Amino acid sequence: MKPVLSVEETLRLEDLIEREGTSKAALMEHAGEAAAARVAQYKPQHVAVLVGFGNNGGDGWVAADILSHQGIAVDVVSPIEPNEIKSPIARHVARRTAGRDVRVIVGPSRDELVSILSEADVVLDAILGTGFTGAVRPPFSIWIPALNELGLPVVSVDVPSGLNAETGAVETVCVEATATVTLLAPKIGLYSGEGPEYAGEITCGQLYSHLDEVIGDVEHAAEIVEPADLVDYFPDLPSNVNKYSRGSVLVVAGSATYPGAAIMAAKAAARAGAGYVTVATPDACANLIRMALPCVPVVGVPSDSRGAFGAAAASAVRELAHKFDCVLCGPGMTVTAGGMQLVTELLRTDVPLVLDADALNCMSRLAIGGIEETPEVYRREAPLILTPHNKELSRLVGDEPVDDLGSAIEAAQKLVWAAGSDNLVVIAKGPSTAIVGVEKVLLPMSGPASLATAGSGDVLAGIVAANIAVSHGDIDCWELLCSYAVAVHSYAGHAAAALMGERSVIATDLIDVLGEAMNLTEREALRDAGIELGD
Ligand SMILES: NC(=O)C1=CN([C@@H]2O[C@H](COP(=O)(O)OP(=O)(O)OC[C@H]3O[C@@H](n4cnc5c(N)ncnc54)[C@H](OP(=O)(O)O)[C@@H]3O)[C@@H](O)[C@H]2O)[C@@H](O)CC1
Ligand SMILES: Nc1ncnc2c1ncn2[C@@H]1O[C@H](COP(=O)(O)OP(=O)(O)O)[C@@H](O)[C@H]1O
Ligand SMILES: [K+]
């Protein structure tokens, strides 16, 4: 796993490295080397380097010097003279570079800038980095749209200029990078908010050779799950299994209004490898679900007058629940008094439980002002996995705003820290999904935007439940098991987009390609771990 840092954590890491004997000036030299190496991959003859006033600009000045030493024509565009730069280390490298074989253009007009950029094969963006906040001010608010309009390859240093490195927010304008060389460790903003849209291909510049020895001494906002991290989490299929021993899932879901959600979750659980899936659903929609799922037993439990779970459903489901390796509750169930009783009852069982969709909304109604205020409601011995999207997560924490990766991680941490159990994991879903446990925040591979389609979350919930059932509790790290499930969902998004076209994917397509998605996840993980693949 690869650490992802907040801005504050990055600054602490720099200080720590400095105490170990490597100065910030030395880090800037290495940052410039990393940026120049990324630009050189394009084999350019002419490079334009846009620098700002701060240390991000310093990195750009160093890179410009290195590229010009490689025989590349380099134009450095700066808003001020090198002598006027406030940061002493950036001023030093700027003055040094300006005295060498580069052309320096200070404060060009928009037209002059466009004509300089038009001569370049690649642009290095070293305008703003981790020190940037708020809305981009002139002259950069003029430079950045001019650069974007040209559509040239752009390598950004640390983060694309205009992107808030902490939140991933873009207030006004931001460089649309082809590639970003982030420094020391990736910044959380590259994965949050609009980060993924602007950053292009992200690589990390190695600025310090003993990083592994010190990175553990600063907290990290999150860790990126690399394919090889998942090698221990593929579900086995030994030859001596039967349908029950493979892993059984009870899907408690559906209502007369939303029977489809139960159908998709159950089918996804079966396709993701559970040997025996059963649906418990209100009587009112049981027959419809039976017809849609010939391979799944469907148990009707008492409905209320609207065809949702009624008051007597809770005890009926409790009787069933303990026979299964995992219970998934929520898809399509709607929020009713019967549903709330059902969720309360399931939280009290000792069976691994996945709560999704309206089960989460029922749960948030069990407490006023945030469920984390009453952790005894959801603290339990058996694993509990919650799979909220931002709105559901916000309701769980008393309607505090959750609108990007950072706020989702914060809200999820409130829930897991209040319960204090390492069996509780929140899968905070969004364009980037975070898996939040009591000690770890993991960022598994994200899928394509094709996943933003109704029912896609029901499919993910089925995949998660199946993997818990198949594991039979033999799990070192629930966060990694959940990461495996999210990775399979993401690969399903890619596989379905390849088949159907990225705009046409619907949730049932994801279910149909789950087998292929599991194979892809496994193949990628083995390759990344350096394990030989058979034919
Ligand atoms: N991590 C590492 O290990 C290493 C990090 N290093 C590098 O340092 C970078 C951080 O440098 P930094 O702290 O100097 O900040 P930086 O991003 O250059 O921005 C500050 C400048 O931007 C300006 N500015 C601010 N807001 C603005 C706005 N809205 N609109 C317009 N301007 C705005 C602000 O102006 P001021 O507010 O002061 O007037 C100030 O001049 C980091 O990203 C990495 O590249 C490497 O060198 C070494 C190893
Ligand atoms: N823009 C996006 N890019 C990638 N994945 C996305 C995007 N938007 C949503 N997703 C994923 O799609 C799923 C949507 O889940 P959810 O909102 O619960 O859907 P539903 O309630 O309709 O089943 C989540 O797994 C989420 O991570
Ligand atoms: K930048």
Helix coverage percent: 40-55%
Work out the count of structural domains: 2
Distance between the amino and carboxyl termini: 28 Å
Spatial extent as radius of gyration: 26 Å
What molecules are bound to this protein? ligand NPW, adenosine-5'-diphosphate, potassium ion
Strand order of the largest sheet: 1-9-18-17-16-15-14-13-10-11-12
Stretches with pLDDT under 50, minimum 5 residues:
none
Any idea of the CATH topology of the largest domain?
A: UDP-N-acetylmuramoyl-L-alanine:D-glutamate ligase
- Main beta sheet: 11 strands, mixed
| Structural class by SSE content | alpha/beta
Explain briefly what this protein structure is:
Its EC number is 4.2.1.136, 5.1.99.6. It comes from Collinsella stercoris DSM 13279. The chain has 535 residues and is an alpha/beta fold.
How would you describe the overall organization of this protein?
With 535 residues, the protein is an alpha/beta fold. The protein folds into two domains: 2-218, YjeF N-terminal domain (Rossmann fold); 228-528, UDP-N-acetylmuramoyl-L-alanine:D-glutamate ligase, CATH 3.40.1190.20. The protein has 19 helices and 18 strands. The protein has helices at residues 7-19, 24-40, 55-69, 88-98, 110-118, 140-150, 195-199, 211-214, 259-271, 283-292, 313-321, 337-348, 357-364, 390-396, 405-419, 456-471, 478-500, 507-512, 514-528; strands spanning 2-4, 46-51, 73-78, 103-106, 122-126, 154-157, 179-183, 201-205, 222-224, 248-252, 276-282, 298-301, 326-329, 353-356, 384-387, 424-428, 434-436, 441-443. α2 (24-40) packs across α3 (55-69) and α12 (337-348) packs across α13. The protein starts with a strand and ends in a 7-residue tail after the last helix. Residues 10, 14, 24, 27-28, 31, 52-59, 87, 128-137, 140, 157-158, 183-184, 207 line the site of ligand NPW.
